[in-house]
Amino acid sequence: MDVSVIIKRYDPVKADTSYKEEHKLTIDEKARITILDVLRMIRDHKDGSLAFRCSCRSGICGSCAVRVNGHEVLACTTGLMDSLSREGKVVIEPLKNLTAIKDLVVDLTPMWDRLKKSDPWLIPDHNLQIGWDNETSMSRSSTRDNENNPPSPPFNKGGMGGFSDKKVALLDKTSSCILCGACYSDCEAFKVDPDFLGPAVFNNAYRFVIDPRDSGGKDRLKKLAESGLWHCAHCYLCASICPKGINPKDSISHLRAKSYRMGLKDDPGASYIDGFYHGIKRTGRISEPLLAIKVKGVGIIKEIPFFLKLLMRGKVPRIRGSIKGIKEIRKIYKIIEDGRRGKA
Amino acid sequence: MRVHDVLIVGAGLAGMRAAIAVPPELDVAVISKVHPVRSHSVAAEGGINAAIREDDSWEAHAFDTIKGGDYLGDQDAIEIMCQEGPKDVLELDRMGALFSRDERGRIAQRPFGGADFPRTCFAADKTGHALVHLLYEQLLKRKAFVYEEWYVTSLIVEDNTCKGVIAWDLITGGLQQIRAKSVILATGGYGRVYSISTNALINTGDGMSIAYRAGIPLMDMEFVQFHPTTLKETGILLSEAARGEGGYLLNSKNERFMNRYAPKKMELASRDVVSRAEYQEIKEGRGINGCVLLDIRHLGKVKIMERLPQIRELAITFAGVDPVKDPVPIRPGVHYSMGGIRTNEWGETGLEGLYAAGESACVSIHGANRLGGNALLETIVFGKRSGLKASERAKSIRSLDVSSKSIKAEEDRIAEIMNRTKGEKVPVLKEEIGQIMSEGVGISRKREGTERAKEKVKKIKERYRDVYIQDKNRVFNTELVSCLELGSIIELAEIIIESALAREESRGAHYRLDFPLRDDTRWLKHTLAYKRETAPRLDYADVRITKYPPAERKY
After folding, report:
1. Which CATH architecture has domain B405-521?
2. Can you give the pLDDT at residue A162?
3. What is the ipTM of this complex?
């Protein structure tokens, strides 16, 4: 069948604007042709100057993330037939939020730099002895020095310092990121906070936070909390497009919860949650003025003119007392809080 | 001018393991034509072997490796790997590797082909991914400098010493001389010499080629591993873990045909044996559209999802078959290069200042056939050792005296290619040579067929002198890089053919229809190929045997 492949081209030498180029191809619709196959066909047989990255062609190296019809995908795992419009068209563009180097090749330096900033390595807990199994893992006939090389801590199910099945599954999932940059392209939070670490980097950081061998603890979380952790808008785009089915947004939520519980509440985002939580507990209502004070702190003074305007137009809600069923609400809080203590 | 103490070419497992072995007081840099996490090690699936259990031993591991390699491996080097393996693997665990665990919380191990003990440690079926990302993290922690997307075109060799590399910066499009007191080549294999391969598109054997051009011999290049379970159209790998976890191989009559070829080990015989058995079944008419079937349905969905999730994903995406419900059509495909740059057990190549490790090197660990799970172990053990040795040398050197002659020659070479105004395109030749190699020096070989391949490659080599690059801009010119890679491919093709023609016996992965038996009297020796203008010059070296005398191989 005849298909039309539209590729967004960019040549930094010839011109400083990008343009769309259409290629008409005849393909066998029964063959499993991927977007990467199409790009290679065009480069190898029509236009040798077409630039794109690719390597493993099996969805594990993360080189070939592009946008197809506006959505981030790995070119090598995306079928052409699945991507065609009714008119037999497909549009291939480079990732967003990143500068194009040439055609579909983008500069991923901003993502790598953010990754470096997040200290993405295990900080081993040398005191972790609990759950170490001395008969583990050393073979009998070797000349190795067992004292200097103690066996590794096992993931003891349910044991202290170990992992539950649920945690192992979570670690499996979060650690399967291939750093392809698809979520970086999709993320809206960079518009609010240019220093936002981004979905992949937060997800990757979470992998260390939940690793029981890690001793990064509060310091690790503090650094993350100060790197835009509260600026994620929970739009779920990263989770919906991740080619490996990871949910970075959930990792961000878990990081927020962990840092909040560790008392890292300096950020307006954390203060907001704090105000919300305690406000409801106290009165059963959300008090917007009180929340505003909580989030803005002393800086609220600057908002006085705005406040007066609101007041004049009758837009400031009255501060009211507790709702009728406040006792019921507090019971709910107690159940939740007791439950959490029990778990800890 | 850039100068480093240790410069590592290639950022896969061997390269990165070497880099983090360099002590902090030294300046280490890694240079790679792709970003480190894109390196092909990331696609390794099944696992890494190490004798870490009480009831296992490194001697048993060594024996399995020697036997698997059909007695061509150097036994002293194999002993080193098997002895150091457990410590090195546990070291990875302590760095933060997420190995799968058994019910007691220990690092889990699974059975693998050719091994008498289940000694393959793994992270589901994504072991390479787990380890590449782990070592990249360690590389960042180590603050090693990384030249991302630089293609090394040649070595700087002066006064019989390697003093760095000449490299093309893909992003800006220019050549640079990068000087170093020690250089380690860790550039991986050459799977893309063949038309269909499990290997990434980047695996063109460049490191082997540049070492060869610098006068270093490539050893045992006739031994090309065919992996038994690859998808038909794409050559995409389905890990040996599928059989390690209990998968069956079936022919068109629904027979587990391995009982005819390896009654004891069945599907878990060594890879050369299983691949040849599949080839035989297909040849004798018991295949299905040129394939046999990999059946893992009896493992059940739960186990498949836990232990083999990637295999399932790959089979669904690239073959349209869900292995939970149906058997997957598979066939043998080019997978690994047992041969490579000849080194000793410290990665030393014989050229002062130059080291090699991983698949690009030949120590030799794998002999005539590699066991599954030993490639990752080799990258870790010998990557580390070469990193340590290269550092020792770097420490002992005060200053580097390098002329700028070498860069001029490379600049001329690239300018000449870029200035050609007409000719054939690179992909045309690449496809042709891949076909020639698959037919002439494939899973089974015969003098006439291989001779024909030799003639054809000779013609390709002539046509290569006139290939034409359409893209005249320097920025991210993938066509130019592809042209240089084709140069490596042609060179290695010649060496594989020459070495295969000369070896008149069958051993491990090298199977000659006209010489079907192993011949220890004449051929218990390594092939060495040296660069010559016309064709490679072959020489031979003894196999080092410690305590495992060659015996007949039965599985």
Report:
1. Up-down Bundle (1.20)
2. 56
3. 0.95
